[in-house]
């Protein structure tokens, strides 16, 4: 936004006769910048899906289920996997619609509304992904503990010894919190910068609309 700051300084030096022209120039710059930000949100979300898809192909859950002789869970896992992809595709489609709308609109108030809508949608997308990560960790722990023959001794101890159960749950909670924190930081870095820039654009538009 350095160009916008320079333009505003130049605007302040000029006489009142240039005020309307300067407002139009500032709006055009904010409009272009907002469109670019939403485009990058769309691109990053698509790249993110491709990245996780690549990881899932390398570390296949089907291979693990075959190893523990429990392919019956494959259908359930595939159902949740496809459901997750369906939700993410919907988010990406909404990001695309926001990009098209923001690129085409001309009214300041509508641009402000769409910026707020986009920020909320990205926040929902991030929290959805974080929720699915926690859900995946819990499901992975349950499968490893109750369906893997190699953990039958640990499973019996957990079921019959409250202390071991408490320790096991504590370890799971710590691992989940740590991983949740790491992914939260990842998403904050990935989308946080773009969201802050969108919010800065919104505040500038609010000044113009006064």
From TrEMBL:
Transmembrane segments: 37-59, 79-96, 125-147, 167-187
Record key words, sorted: Membrane, Transmembrane, Transmembrane helix
Name this protein carries in UniProt: Beta-carotene 15,15'-monooxygenase
